[in-house]
Amino acid sequence: MGVFSGKSLQQGKYVVEQELGRGGFGITYKARNTVLAQAVVLKTINDALRQEPQFEEHQRHFQDEAKRLARYSHWVVDTAHVVSS
User: Fold this and answer.
1) Pairing of strands 26-33, 79-84
2) Is residue 4 a contact partner of residue 31, using CB atoms and an 8 Å limit?
3) What is the pTM of this model?
4) Where does ATP bind (predicted)?
5) Most buried residue among 4, 47, 49, 78 by CB atoms closer than 10 A?
6) pLDDT the model gives residue 1
7) Is 67 annotated as a binding-site member?
């Protein structure tokens, strides 16, 4: 399915601005938190993984990656959020 530029998510809290990249686990987007007026990065899990028998394992890895990113602090990196798991 995927998320498209300009799409509003989570009842308008986030607006997708552009796709940044695709990888094995999902798609990463640059977005804007409309409540806090700040740039964020959103990552969705790859829809194809949902069809695999080991989806729960993929989901755990996806969530673990999000937790690592949330703990990461660097002046160049915006905040990471999980959109879909």
Assistant:
1) unpaired
2) no
3) 0.74
4) 43
5) 49
6) 47
7) no
**Class of 8-84 in CATH:** alpha beta
| 61-79 pLDDT tens trace | 888 888 887 787 777 766 6
- Written as six digits, the tokens of 83 are 């959109």
Q: Are strands 26-33 and 8-9 parallel, antiparallel or unpaired?
A: unpaired
Q: Which residues pair with 41 in a beta bridge?
A: 30, 80
Domain ranges of the chain: 8-84
Return averaged pLDDT per consecutive 10 residues of the chain, 85 residues in all.
78 93 86 91 85 90 83 71 56
